[in-house]
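Dear all,

This email documents one entry for the complex benchmark we are building for the journal club exercise. For each entry we list the sequence lines for every component of the assembly. Then comes the predicted three-dimensional structure of the complex as a token string, followed by one or two observations. Please use this as the template for your own entries, and keep the labels exactly as they appear.
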Amino acid sequence: MRDFSADHRWLSLNTATLRKQGDLLEIIDACARHGIRAIDPWRDQVAAVGLDRAARAVRDAGLDLTGYCRGGMFVADAAHRTEARDDNRRAVDEAKALGAPCIVLVVGGLPQYSRPGSVLSRDIAGARAQVDDAIAEMMEYAKQANMPLAVEPLHPTYAADRACVNTTKQALDICDRLDPRRTGALGVALDVYHIWWDPELLPQIARAGKDRLLAFHVCDWLVPTKDVLNDRGMMGDGVIDIKSVRAAVEAQGFAGYSEIEIFSEGWWAKPMDEVLRTCIERHRTVV
Amino acid sequence: MRDFSADHRWLSLNTATLRKQGDLLEIIDACARHGIRAIDPWRDQVAAVGLDRAARAVRDAGLDLTGYCRGGMFVADAAHRTEARDDNRRAVDEAKALGAPCIVLVVGGLPQYSRPGSVLSRDIAGARAQVDDAIAEMMEYAKQANMPLAVEPLHPTYAADRACVNTTKQALDICDRLDPRRTGALGVALDVYHIWWDPELLPQIARAGKDRLLAFHVCDWLVPTKDVLNDRGMMGDGVIDIKSVRAAVEAQGFAGYSEIEIFSEGWWAKPMDEVLRTCIERHRTVV
């Protein structure tokens, strides 16, 4: 396991962590000020400043990317499926233009939430089947762009409204079904927030192996959690034994960045530089 | 699958559903008014009116019990383990006095939450090991009273603070380890709220079989969930396909009550009779 205590060279910032403090260009400037070498930008943040400007700013700053957030939201009724497919193809094009190493997929939950306007459904098994089909379809397009897809299992709390893929096992089952030969086209993005509770986590990380581990995200689970969406914790402030998860991932050969992604009204209310200073300190001490 | 549309003879009320509207004796009276034949009382509600009075009221009303809530909270540091053990033994004695068919076990999360005052830990694997040992110890005592224990897997949202047993598979693994011969001393209590999201739910219910299925609880998962603890939904108001879970449980031979347990600030604010009328209507239409 790599020693992170001496510097933060393996810290990547998911730009949602600062989404309320500034636009993507300001976030990139802040990363430069703090010696942060990599980011994972969100589509809406890229769109707000323009794809070309965003791509140029990333290049000019010499930043690595650790992903592009996010594709997915595949589950839709028939009337919204073309919209979902086309939207995901645009995500591939954007990721390519930015030079991202993969697209993180949040697959969607029930259709009325993942593609609003879709008819109401309680069929989560049906949603899961649709996710398989839609990832298979997206892979065809992404392969032409040589753009890997990283399925992110989301905490079961989000099963209805954000992602019906809720365990690492489930994400890896999809990978094995759609990419049995491990071509590199499909893998997983593991965020400790979503997976820390899973009694099968360590064997599933071993099953994933280096070639399926496309991204590793960190934050923390607070007790109590005041808001299921926007009360994630800074690393060290919650109950997750982050180092043990990173050790498991690195034992498989993962040698990439540790990406900080914190959705938090509390941290969004603080100045950008204070958040980044804290991220760096916690990266060195508890990640 | 039984037809619930014509009456509510298989409706049981978990008395936490009305905990803010009245004491246990008032809840029992209300059940009598509405033709509800069974309840599952909570220890604090029993203690508030006195064990003897509670037992007499249950008998006088001719009520069946579907469980006793709750034992568990096993995870503790060394200084709090005796307290946890003795507390659970008292739960067995009370359940026996009341004539309950089983004790529902909420096993506890990390020690600082399940037994406040315990030293802080982030070791969920250690918590799980402790749960195994403590259930084994409690079983020895419960067997003498011929009192079955029903392990309730809780939604992963509660992994840190309430229960580190978070899937049906995990609960059944405990049963198989501690009661491999399926003596009836150990089983599971399944609440749709906690398990509906689980991609392995149906095969695990089949694995459980009739002799492990000691209780079946219903409510609903609301989107959005405004409070992770006390914003559970009335059946039909959320996203759970309750009938499909009941069908799976009954396909294994489960023929007991369907127990309504709703922790909800919204429903706690309504009059007792309105809540029960709604429970009965939804029991007949969506359970």
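Observations: The longest helix of chain B spans residues 124-144. The two ends of chain B are 11 Å apart (CA to CA).
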